[in-house]
Amino acid sequence: MMPPPSGGGLENRFEIVSNYTSRPSKDMLYKLGLLTVRFRWAVIALWIAVFLAALILAPKVTSALKSGFGDVDTEARRGLALMTQKLQVPEASFTIVFHSPDLKVSDPKYVEEVKKVESHVSSLPEVSRVVTYYNVQNPYMVSSDGHTSYAIVLLKSDINTALETFPALRKKLPPAGELQMWATGGVPIFSELTEASERDLRRAETLALPLVLVALVIVFGSVVAAGLPLAMGVVSIVVTLALVYLLAQRTDMSIFVLNIASFLGLGMAIDYSLLIVSRFREELATRSKEEAIAVSLSKAGMTILFSGITSALGLSGLIFFKFTGLRSIGIGGVSVILMSMVLAMTLLPAILGVLGHRVNSLRILPQRASGSGIWHGLAQWVMRHPLAVAIPIIVALLILGLPFLRVNLGAPWASILSKGSEPRQGWEFVEEKMGSGELAPILLVATSANGIANEENIGTLYDFASKIAQDGRVNRVESIVSIDPRITKEQYQKMYLNPSQVIFPEVSRAFTELTSSNNEVTLLRVISAYPPMSEETKALVRDIRRFRPEGGVTVYVSGATADLIDSVDRMYQDFPKVIIFVIFTTYVALLWLFRSVVLPLKAILMNTLSILASYGALVFIFQEGHFQRFLGFPAEGNVEATVPILMFCILFGVSMDYEVFLLSRIKEEYEASGDNTRSVALGLERTGLIITSAALILVLVASAFATGDIVVVKALGFGIALAIFIDATIVRTLLVPALMRLLGNLNWWAPAFLKGR
């Protein structure tokens, strides 16, 4: 049996939690520790049963989750609903692109191959209708050289169902013989994006687990001690996924919850377990096994409790968003944090009660010698030079954050996929041969209670469509009033006085296709000269909305670009409310913990600096493209709109962990000595290693996600890893102690009623 560690060294530097001896909460945690070790086999058996049950449910979670990001009530979605209800245009569709370097669309062999595919696809139960050049005679469905054409496959399902079922549907599509064929469009793009995200998740987990184990072995020097936090992380992920599966039976949950459950389940469970195991090894040097567990849970447990509360508060802000994707991530994040807390405070102490001194078994690194070490020297230096530390760091963090002023929020599209992706290849081929906006038109849904086909409304629509068509950003407008440039406004007005009597087949066909049977709704398609997610097309959508037609016609601007604009606007309308909620509740929680008005405010400001610096780095790298070759991604000229929101909610809570670790130890010293400078120095000296070790775990996990193929996942992983690195190595171990040294006893100021116990 390996003897317990003694003296100073690594274990002594894991004293991180304040002495709450006089508090009832400490007594409860102390008693919980005793109960857990007394009934350790029962606790372990209970968790084994839970884990085995979770192993049955967790693999089913993917089938229970939704692929979409969620619907909200926006103008674009209202327009889409009108198209579905009044024009019988299915909500979901995809595009099949055909090309031959030798054959043209008029060649019999080309026609035969396309019609074979059309016939087969039309017979599939998922398909409502297939629109080809041959059955609508739309010349714009053929490239100018005649070698490329496309067909639109209209589906019976809604978008979310289409995203889930498309991979199976794609396998049913027949080959096009001598023609090249690609399936592309919004449904294939986002369906493959979901699959690629899942692949990235599996790769990240495979990469993260061995890296984290190596890091834990370096921290603890013992394989057994290192394996415990990793085991807690695995249990936390599996049980949380099972819980998500159960929640998905009652409410919609997005597939994106898997990434956050994996990342936080591994990171937070390991962090919390790190505290318990470290404290237990320290206490075991002078106490019995039972007493060591009780004291460890009493002291480290309070830090875990408040760290978990602040982390959960940060992620709970996501629950207030109306988008299923963000709300699901919030629910999953809060669930996995609470699960990690419960594991660290029940199962882990029970296992330690079984292991006792054997927790130090299989030591493969020598025990570190006692002594003050680097953290003692750093603490003393910071205390002697607080201004020299604080001012350069604050300036540097603000400079790092400056690029965020240039942020351009966007959304993923075909180019976010790998170059070998079929949806990307098909989309880019059409862009090259037929124009950037061909497959993603801006959809204008015009409606009038007086009927579309009356003289006044036809005139209004003609003027509106003509004005749009004259815009240099527009390739063309397809509508019932822009069929042929030789037809005048007056002629359209006369023809549509009695639509059933129109003698021109192309006019009659357009009216039938684009206008509802009750004559109340019609559709205008605006084909942009630019890609759907470009700044030019987004500006075009905004301009169309600014210059709506007057009179009795109401126009809803819809389509992929408008949906992006509306979704981003809605998210960032709610974001300030979420920021206020997270900051306020975190402040109240820290106010109660530290009984200080100043410390929670300083903690929030420090978190803000860390997050802003990482925001700036995101823009500098992922929007503007610096280091893109080194990091292996193509810059898209924007930052995906959800990334800043997710980073704020994740980082605000996670970073607060390290603040609680540090301030708890400083408060313990201050309550004992009343000397602010000495307390800050000792707090830094005795928490520096634990903070950097805990942060290292999360940085490794986040960095594993940054290796993914999907730029959104890569950006989120990189941003979180960078922010945690900055926070743990610069902010918490240098800037926070320096500011506390400068503030002196003001750190601990609070009204008398607040200091009362």
Q: Helix- and strand-based class?
A: alpha+beta
- Ranges where pLDDT stays below 50 over 5 or more residues in a row are 1-26
What is the tally of beta strands?
Answer: 10
Shape: elongated
Mean pLDDT: 85
For the biggest β-sheet, the strand order reads: 2-3-1-4
Q: What's the CATH topology label of the domain at 1-15 and 23-68 and 222-362?
A: Multidrug efflux transporter AcrB transmembrane fold
CATH class of the domain at 1-15 and 23-68 and 222-362 equals Mainly Alpha
Q: What is the end-to-end distance?
A: 45 Å
**CATH homology superfamily name of the domain at 1-15 and 23-68 and 222-362:** Multidrug efflux transporter AcrB transmembrane domain
Q: Give the proportion of residues in helices.
A: 55-70%
Number of helices: 28
| CATH second-level architecture of the domain at 1-15 and 23-68 and 222-362 | Up-down Bundle
Strand content: 5-15%
Task: Note down, in words, how this protein is organized.
It is a single chain. This protein has 28 helices and ten strands. Among the domains are: 1-15 and 23-68 and 222-362, Multidrug efflux transporter AcrB transmembrane fold (Up-down Bundle); 90-191, Alpha-Beta Plaits (2-Layer Sandwich), CATH 3.30.70; 441-558, Alpha-Beta Plaits (2-Layer Sandwich). Mean pLDDT is 85; it is low at 1-26. The strands form three sheets. Strands 2-3-1-4 form a four-stranded antiparallel β-sheet, with helices on both faces. A four-stranded antiparallel β-sheet has the order 7-8-6-9, with helices on both faces. With 757 residues, it is of the alpha+beta class.
